Amino acid sequence: GQQLNQSPQSMFIQEGEDVSMNCTSSSIFNTWLWYKQEPGEGPVLLIALYKAGELTSNGRLTAQFGITRKDSFLNISASIPSDVGIYFCAGPLRRSSNYKLTFGKGTLLTVNP
Amino acid sequence: SQTIHQWPATLVQPVGSPLSLECTVEGTSNPNLYWYRQAAGRGLQLLFYSVGIGQISSEVPQNLSASRPQDRQFILSSKKLLLSDSGFYLCAWSKGTIFDEQFFGPGTRLTVL
Known about the structure:
The complex is a heterodimer of chains A (113) and B (113).
Chain A: E1 4-7, E2 10-14, E3 19-25, E4 32-37, E5 44-49, E6 55-58, E7 61-65, E8 71-76, E9 85-95, E10 98-103, E11 107-112
Parallel strand pairs in A: 2-11
Antiparallel strand pairs in A: 1-3, 3-8, 4-5, 4-9, 6-7, 7-8, 9-10, 9-11
Chain B: E1 3-7, E2 10-13, E3 19-26, E4 32-38, E5 44-52, E6 55-58, E7 65-70, E8 73-78, E9 87-94, E10 103-104, E11 108-112
Parallel strand pairs in B: 2-11
Antiparallel strand pairs in B: 1-3, 3-8, 4-5, 4-9, 5-6, 7-8, 9-10, 9-11
């Protein structure tokens, strides 16, 4: 069946370092979404991508919609302690007879001050 | 602007007791509504979604049920809780199709003892 894979599962970095995480799909996507979830809270939408090749920034965050439409990456530059959380990618995967927004398993980011 | 509320924020219930979690959305009409469960702070499992009043789709067989008595109200219920029902329950809403951007509530932490 169609799959959505997110990597890495976790990252431990020093404050000030840059971070990169990515998601790949077994099928073509029309949308890639990136969310951040802080401990004990609901996920918050960071960036939405709708077009192959699209590169979008939100402050220190940059995300790109891969040209093949089967992948996306999220970069965080000059990380700070408040970047800690779980980052999820999401996209429409075909489930049974319908498309559903499907989330990756998340990348747990830890930033050491 | 739109806001989404969930209550209670935390709940501790004995095995075999009933459950009712409530979610309400403000600032939009006819939203798609979703219930997710998140175990161990990682993956999001879609439990139910609704595209309109009284319309509920179940994604996985389980001990839970959902209802949508009003346009912007979504309720998650159980007649008898199991230990395995413990987790972080998230409500979300979206406009348009059910694989568009979703916006999450703050979540309810349920512990079944």
